[in-house]
Amino acid sequence: MQTALTTRTINATDIAQAAACLRAGGLVAFPTETVYGLGADAANPRAVAGIYEAKGRPSFNPLIAHVADLEAAKRIARFDSRALALAEAFWPGPLTLVLPKTDNCPVSDLATAGLDTVAIRVPDHPVAHALLMAFGGAVVAPSANISGHVSPTTAAHVKADLDGRIDMIVDGGPVDVGVESTIVACFEQPLLLRPGGLPREAIERVLGMALARPPEDPATDNHQPLAPGMLASHYAPRTPVRLMASDVQPGEALLAFGPSLLPGIEDAKAVLNLSKDGDLGEAAANLFGYLRALDGAGATGIAVMPVPAHGLGEAINDRLRRAAV
Ligand code: TXA
Ligand code: MG
Q1: Can you tell me the distance from the alpha carbon of 227 to that of 71, in angstroms, rounded to the nearest whole number?
Q2: Could you say which ligand is closest to the alpha carbon of residue 288?
Q3: Are 101 and 116 in contact (CB under 8 A)?
Q4: 72 Cβ partners below 8 Å, 6+ apart?
Q5: Phi, psi (deg, nearest 5) at residue 314
Q6: What are the pLDDT digits (tens) for 38-85?
Q7: Which of 227, 259, 257 is nearest to 245 (CA)?
Q8: CA-to-CA distance for 102 and 309, rounded, in angstroms?
Q9: Distance between Cα 276 and ligand 2 center (Å)
Q10: What does the alpha-carbon distance between residue 125 and residue 110 come to, in Å, rounded to a whole number?
């Protein structure tokens, strides 16, 4: 299969072509503000099966349905008052809500892995928005990487993983946020299923209450995990990752954060700094690209300096822990 790649300046023809490709059951990678997604028509089970196949993704792992706006979301999922408050506060944006399906939910059972809930979000990216408007229906999209690899933040990352396995890549340049959306399940007790691009603190402010984490770490839970995609090694580079580094060992590359220098840094195989100023937003945007780059540096390991745990730091530390498994 030949994968078509658009140029960086996306025009109406590119969008129409991508929407037609989705309508025909094709697989289209497109930018969102968080990471690039691999999209398929949510209502077309064969197209959805193609996503699992292209990614090599375990089929028990359900997908997020992307829609253009809240109206479209209401056709798919039932919103209680809390879910509505979150949608109104944060959509479009890096928040995914897990909600009960509507009775005539068009999202195929394969995409929700047979659950009676559906994960749904309205992305905040002009290309994603234009594509969803042109397509008209829901588009299910996991991150556009081979299952288990680091999520793509540029079209080049997508091409490196999926060239020849998908129909089209819409190149909208590097993404803004750089980590996946925050996932909240709106059940009786709202749960933070995955920390992500929207900090927990912002969500708790709107809810007026603390967000609970699922009872056990889903990465190690033997029971039906609440966010089944949260497998421990979900974001693993091939090079071993060492967290909380206070020095650089011989042969290692360094993923730095902030201004301070570590002993051994002069001999590091490569050094990339997530944010010299200690800015967590900048660090999130750089995270996956830098992990990919250091993974290719021929180092024996990647040493990672500590990153603060507040705000976007919760998602960054979550992804780093998974990268270190
Ligand atoms: O930022 C993002 O969320 C990106 C962009 C492309 O939108 N997408 C993304 O998708 O990260 P993916 O497939 O890599 O992660 C989706 C997560 C998985 O952990 C999955 O288990 C969880 O959402 N999920 C999906 N449906 C669910 C459901 N009904 N209940 C619980 N978890 C669900
Ligand atoms: Mg993913």
Answers
A1: 25
A2: 2
A3: yes
A4: 132, 138
A5: -65, -45
A6: 999 999 988 998 998 899 877 668 999 999 999 999 999 999 999 999
A7: 257
A8: 36
A9: 27
A10: 26
Question: Comparing C-alpha atoms, which of 23, 226, 53, 8 is closest to residue 139?
Answer: 23
Q: Which of 30, 48, 63, 64 to mutate to test the pocket of ligand 1 (most atoms within 8 A of CB)?
A: 64
Tokens for 267, please give them: 């001999």
pTM score, two decimals?
A: 0.88
Please give the pLDDT value at position 218.
46
Task: Measure the N-to-C terminal CA separation of the chain; round to a whole number of Å.
Answer: 34
Neighbours of 212 (CB within 10 A): 11
Percent helix, strand, coil in the chain (nearest 5)? 30, 15, 55
Which residue's CA is the nearest one to ligand 1's atom 19?
Answer: 229
Where on the phi/psi map is residue 118: left (φ > 0), alpha (ψ -120 to 50), or beta? beta
Q: Are 140 and 39 in contact (CB under 8 A)?
A: yes
CA-based torsion, 61, 221, 188, 212: positive or negative: negative
Centre of ligand 1 from the C-alpha of residue 141, in Å: 8
Paired tokens of 254: 């360094």
Q: How does pLDDT run across 217-235, given as a tens digit for each residue?
A: 544 433 344 555 554 555 6
* Alpha-carbon distance values, 267 to 233, 252, 271 (Å): 29, 8, 10
Q: How far apart are CA 230 and CA 250, in angstroms?
A: 32
Mutate which of 63, 129, 224 to test ligand 1's pocket (most atoms within 8 Å of Cβ)? 63
**Three-state helix/strand/coil letters over 127-170:** HHHHHHHHHCCCEECCECCCCCCCCCCCHHHHHHHHCCCCCEEC
